[in-house]
Amino acid sequence: MVKSGNSKGFIADYAIIGFGISGAMIASELLLRGRSFVVFDAMDQKSASRVAAGVINPVVYRRFAPVPRAAQYLKKAYLTYRHLEKKLGQDLLHSISFLKLFDGLDERHKWQLNAFEPGNEEYMNSHVFEDNFKDSIRNDFGAGEILKAGWLDIPLLLDSFADYLKSRGQYIDVQIEEDMIDYQNEAIQICNSSMNVRVKIMVWSNGIKVNSGSIFGWLPFKNSKGETLEIQSDTLSTNYLFHKGVFVLPRKGLHYVGATYNWKDDTLETTEEGKGELINKLNRFVLKSYQIVSHKAGLRPATKDRKPFVGAHPELNHTYIFNGMGSRGVLWAPLLAEELINFIESGTSLPDGIDIKRYFKHYTK
Ligand SMILES: Cc1cc2nc3c(=O)[nH]c(=O)nc-3n(C[C@H](O)[C@H](O)[C@H](O)COP(=O)(O)OP(=O)(O)OC[C@H]3O[C@@H](n4cnc5c(N)ncnc54)[C@H](O)[C@@H]3O)c2cc1C
């Protein structure tokens, strides 16, 4: 809960700048621990979190092997989203049978070999699916099932969580500019003509909006653009997610098709090239007709080494970053949020590879 202070305005332990899935997971972790905090969000309807499919996939396609720390990520993600479902009274998390359609016999054999590796059987079903789903799917080489997959309704989570926080006076709809912030030794003051908030700790979870001149602008981001379609089909299965180059996910009465990866175009505009790529890939395995209902684009806040950016600013006291979730924000953010708060409050080291101190040599004032 936020205290209404004296002449200095509101007082809280934490300020969270940005309320995509990253900021929401920091907020969820702080709620669990009973900390006071205020969220500031510019409510960007084109943010990555609002364009994303929300898929939780614990397997790396390129290697046919589990994501490092898959068990820990999944455990915390499922616990957190189920807990938020209860708190917010919403159906947020949906399980799905995720079928990776093989490109050829090599892929099929690799899957079968890897599925028997110790530790992999939890995530990779060794049984190969030969079904073509009533002639709706081209499945020439069989499909491997990724286990423990699901999808999260991120917009519903963000909207219902924001309403909950607003009702407690913990959410302010505003774009924070750096000149609103006064970094002091013991506290951080955020003010403009209509607000004045004093906090002990600030977490920046503002996704792609880290400008080059800003306090974390020296970090090597490498955002990647993704375009998606929503299609309407009466024949595609509503029980399975199919993946072959792109995936098609049954979601809210439609099918979500995603996504392209483009590291050169950093605009949020949809393109005919992106749409063409999605349709070409889709038509390789979807055999029945469909109608395109929408076409969207977003930018994934991704990093050069494909690892998240978590940790303390090299110089500014009490100032942290929680960003760089790439294409795995839904799986990663709950556990990483817990680890960041442990780091801030107990000094526990961050796991290898995620702490931004790996880039401190890039930092200049
Ligand atoms: C097409 C596409 C499909 C994807 N599919 C998946 C998927 O299936 N599964 C998955 O796990 N990930 C997926 N991703 C990736 C996922 O979207 C990201 O990992 C995740 O959403 C990043 O969340 P974030 O909160 O860090 O950033 P964002 O979602 O960008 O949120 C940042 C927030 O900060 C706010 N903000 C920014 N600057 C300020 C400021 N100065 N003041 C106040 N507020 C500010 C913005 O308004 C926004 O609300 C996909 C991404 C794309 C583009």
Fold and architecture overview:
This protein is α+β, with helices and mostly antiparallel strands. It has 2 domains: 3-50 and 155-219 and 308-362, FAD/NAD(P)-binding domain (3-Layer(bba) Sandwich), CATH 3.50.50; 97-148 and 224-300, D-Amino Acid Oxidase, Chain A, domain 2. It is 25% helix and 29% strand. The chain has 7 helices and 22 strands. Strands 1, 2, 3, 12, 13, 14, 15, 21 and 22 form a 9-stranded mixed sheet that branches. Strands 9-10-8-17-18-19-16-20 form an 8-stranded mixed sheet. A hairpin with a 5-residue loop joins strand 1 (3-4) and strand 2. Helix 1 (21-32) crosses helix 7 (329-346) and helix 3 packs across helix 7. The protein is globular. Residues 17-23, 40-44, 47-49, 51-55, 175-176, 205-209, 226, 228, 258-259, 298-301, 323, 325-331 line the site of flavin-adenine dinucleotide.
